[in-house]
Amino acid sequence: MEISIVTASAILKGRFSKLPTRDEELFQMQIRDKAYFHDSSVIPDGAEISSYLFRDTPKRYFFVVEEDNTPLSVTVTPCDAPLEWKLSLQELPEEASGEGSGDDETDREKESSCDDCLFSYKGNDVECFIASSSPSGLYQLELLSTEKDTHFKVYATTTPESDQPYPELPYDPRVDVTSLGRTTVTLAWKPSPTASVLKQPIQYCVVVSREHNFKSLCAVEAKLSADDAFMMAPKPGLDFSPFDFAHFGFALENSAKERSFLTKPSPKLGRHAHARPKADIQKVCIGNKNIFTVSDLKPDTQYYFDVFVANSDSNMSTAYLGTFARTKEEARQKTVELKDGKVTDVFVKRKGAKFLRFAPVPAHQKVTFFVHSCLDAVQIQVRRDGKLLLSQNVEGIRQFQLRGKPKAKYLIRLKGNKKGASMLKILATTRPSKQSLPSLPEDRRIKAFDKLRTCSSVTVAWLGTQERNKFCIYKKEVDDNYNEDQKKREQNQCLGPDTRKKSEKVLCKYFHSQNLQKAVTTETIKGLQPGKSYLLDVYVTAHGGHSVKYQSKVVKTRKFC
After folding, report:
1. Dist CA 122 CA 394 (whole Å)
2. Residue 134 sits in the same domain as residue 211
3. Is residue 439 part of a domain?
4. Is 442 within a domain?
5. Which range marks the domain in which residue 194 is found?
6. What is residue 321's DSSP assignment?
7. In this structure, are 17 and 128 located in the same domain?
8. pTM (predicted TM-score)
9. Which of 95, 289, 322, 477 has the fewest CB atoms within 10 Å, i.e. the most exposed one?
């Protein structure tokens, strides 16, 4: 540390070589390529640098002010952890010497104290030191993170009035919630004078989080993912290079070394920063619009909203005053009362839910639920007096038997799927022997015998059960290009034979078998046209009159016989 100060003192006092101004070509080139300052302890005038701090390991940067009465502005942006930082003007000794003072302990105590600090701060706000008139000299910025390893950004300039690197905020920098729904929130804010007055290119970025508000876009990006620029973080003690004067235009021993240094920086030893899990946060940049609707939110959930205005050329940004809001609750749905032994038709919207209540006689021993999903699968949950007893997906017909409890009440929740609306029939009873829905085999397909096809008939078979039920078969002529999408529209198993035309009916018959392996019936459908396609449906009807349809089958007669 002392060697760098002494060397700088000799240069400042002796003026052996004039320090470059920001207008010089080399310095401008170095500012454009921030890689030159990545591992340097020098802060360039008028350019923002990004760097990394290890926990409890201080880091020092230096900034040169060449002339007295010069304006000075230093801005520090913490990213993902609070920082302690202080700015001081170094006292340069009268006599320069490359040797140490011999009292290292005294020097360290002096450096750690802040009696002669120009400014000090502790926290995670974006904080700025501004002086309209500063003496010439060597300024030291010391930063420390006591919580964890962290990223940060620093910007220093001697021309703050003309630079204006950070977009300005309006006189009212608040973000307002103008509309609030169950899944949407509309935000509005006043435009930045940087765009409306100075006509500089800007864009607004909206950040939504369920954790907290953010004070800088740097903090947002650090939360979203580990920055690629810091995947190889320098080790403590190896990233501090006191005053590399090559950055200030001083030649090295030969020009070849200088070209090599500027074009290919020497690699630093480092350790990998572990990628963090993706946080519950979203960022979207929307151009220069100052109103935005956030959608796909969860009902009855608190969210935090931040807006940042960023300079499109420099990517430097300023934070508006964020806000928070809780989305509205889901509309309370009416609970449908189920009657013992009665079938209830239920319609559930896409991604929607329906609630049903069953209050059987107080002295019941068992409760049986019959659920018939007419289209796609639905999810059913059954709670008894608030305790979850059942949670399953149901496709087709399912039967659930639960142990009863005196005076118990049952709450049934039916949830639709993402594909589309759901239709179903549900029956709750304490007397399962008197069910209203027919019993069905597990395999409800209709099988067609290809070898038995003729030009005017087809032969099909389907399975039955041990209970005697009524089976009716229907046919309908369809086009040859009848596809799966059309077939799917016919798959509503809850539509009974009463919805079919009388001319489509082939026959009805009763059938059952005590031996399940022999519970199969066949039927030959005659009177068909050669080379035509037909849609066949089989309906089974229970004693209570409710019907269930088997899976539809498309068959085609032979064209030539």
Report:
1. 58
2. no
3. no
4. no
5. 176-229+274-310
6. B
7. yes
8. 0.49
9. 95
552: Cβ–Cβ under 8 A, 6 or more apart, which residues? 446, 487, 490, 491, 535, 536, 537
Q: How many helices (H) and strands (E) does the chain have?
A: 8, 33
Q: Do residues 316 and 165 lie in contact, with contact meaning Cβ atoms separated by under 8 Å?
A: yes
Tokens of 345: 């038709």
Helices (H), 78-230: 104-112, 160-163, 193-196, 217-224
Contact 322, 214 (CB under 8 A): yes
**Residue 171 counted as domain residue:** no
Give the integer Cα–Cα distance in Å for 554 and 476.
9
| Number of folded domains that form the chain | 4
Per-position pLDDT tens, the chain of length 561: 444 444 344 434 443 334 444 444 544 444 445 444 445 688 888 888 888 889 999 999 998 888 888 899 999 999 888 899 999 987 655 544 444 444 444 444 444 456 678 899 998 888 889 898 889 888 899 999 998 898 899 989 888 877 778 899 999 999 999 999 999 999 999 999 987 777 788 999 999 999 999 999 988 988 886 434 344 444 444 443 343 333 333 334 343 333 333 333 333 333 344 444 445 889 999 999 999 999 999 999 999 999 999 988 888 899 999 999 999 987 776 888 999 888 888 888 887 888 999 999 888 888 989 888 887 788 899 999 989 999 998 887 788 889 888 889 999 999 887 777 888 889 898 887 666 677 778 888 999 999 999 999 999 999 988 888 889 999 999 887 776 566 655 667 777 888 889 999 999 998 888 887 788 999 999 999 999 999 999 998 877 677 888 888 999 999 988
> Do residues 401 and 506 lie in contact, with contact meaning Cβ atoms separated by under 8 Å?
no
Q: Residue 151: which CATH number?
A: 2.60.120.380
Helix H or strand E encompassing 488: helix 484-489
CA 102 centroid distance within chain: 57
Residue 147 phi, psi dihedral angles, 5° rounding: -95, -50
